[in-house]
Design a protein that fits this description.
single chain; mainly alpha; 2 domains; elongated
Length: 118
């Protein structure tokens, strides 16, 4: 039986596995039991899971993304006042200025640096 090979299994203690095998043979008999096992976890070690710092950062990032998605879902698809402002700036050449290009380049560099730090 494969269960007797599990590390820390109470089946490894002397006699418990034999009592189980005896119960299998006498399955048709009434009153057959596995015997008295006071604490089946005695002598075993508890399982333990550690979450790395990188995984914790990913969890935090995922929560931030979820908050952002919920906030975006609450916004209307098209905001007429923003569209009107963008059209006006486009018509006046605002987006062709050096200052706007530098600001956009700095933001893009910041986003790329943030992604690389993950």
């Amino acid at each position: 039986m494969a269960m007797d090979k599990i590390n820390g299994s109470p089946l490894l203690r002397q006699g418990i596995l034999d009592r189980f095998r005896g119960a299998e043979r006498g399955a048709g008999q009434t009153g057959t039991n596995l015997g008295s096992i006071a604490d089946p976890t005695a002598g075993t070690t508890a399982d333990k899971a550690d979450i790395s710092d990188a995984a914790r950062r990913l969890i935090d990032l995922r929560q931030a993304v979820d908050v952002g998605r919920r906030a975006l879902a609450d916004l209307p698809d098209v905001r007429p006042e923003k569209v009107a402002a963008a059209r006006e700036r486009l018509a006046t050449g605002f987006y062709n200025s050096v200052e706007v290009r530098d600001a956009v380049a700095e933001r893009v560099a910041g986003v790329v640096a943030g992604i690389e730090s993950l």
